[in-house]
Amino acid sequence: MAKIRRVRQHVNPLSSKYAESAIAPNWSDVFADVQRPLHLDIGCAKGDFVREMAQLVPDWNFLGIEIREPLVERALMKRDRDEQHNLHFVFCNANNSLETLLSSWPGGCPLQRVSIQFPDPWFKKRHQKRRVVQPELVEQLAKLMPVGAWVWLQSDIEEVCEEMCDRFDENSDFMRAGNGWLAESPFPVLTDRERVTAVEKGLPVYRAKYIRQ
Questions:
Q1: 179 a known binding residue?
Q2: How do residues 151-198 score in pLDDT, each as one tens digit?
Q3: Beta-bridge partner residues of 28
Q4: Ligand-binding site membership of 120 (annotated)
């Protein structure tokens, strides 16, 4: 019987363990059609959201990235079991790997959508530099995304979503859509956290959309 690897709930992205950028796979081997539009889910956890999206939207490719390696290994096993050829997962630190991963895309990366959903809040002041949405991440996305592509942000912690919005507001390549928090997700699939928070408990979820200018 294969040994089940323990999954840490919190992983420090500033640790030396995560200092090296990920090595890009051969994308033509990963996806059946590399020129389909790409949806990138940053911090995909178990990958359930993108796995369901890949089933419902077969004419898009879906890529989930996650810093907890055991979760990626399990997500890839499920992907292979279900023979989903428009879905892939990569173990990496998003803040130092996006450009390395996606700049190698054959013919140029067709990145059209990015979702960052319910990221680790890192509540303590001294730990907030570990939050995933940093200026460097926004800059990488601006380089990789064409005009008209968009980023979806959501959290059940208003302070966390406000800070993510602040980082995108600081970058002139992105423009916020609408005024204030958006009422609904544009996706036909809910994340586990969204389902529990909004549907089962009836608590607010803070949502924002940023369009690449």
A1: no
A2: 999 999 999 999 999 999 999 999 999 999 999 999 999 999 999 999
A3: none
A4: yes
Confirm or deny that 162 is annotated as ligand binding: no
Asked whether residue 13 is domain-assigned, the answer is no
**Whole-angstrom Cα Rg for the chain:** 16
For the chain, the domain total comes to 1
Contacts of 2 (CB under 8 A, 6+ apart): none
CA distance 133 to 116: 9
Tokens of 172: 């002139």
The gap from C-alpha 156 to its chain's centroid, in whole angstroms, comes to 16
Which alpha helices (H) appear in the chain, and where do they start and end?
A: 27-30, 48-56, 69-81, 94-102, 135-144, 158-169, 192-194
CATH number at residue 188: 3.40.50.150
Catalytic residues: 120
- 0.85 exceeded by pTM: yes
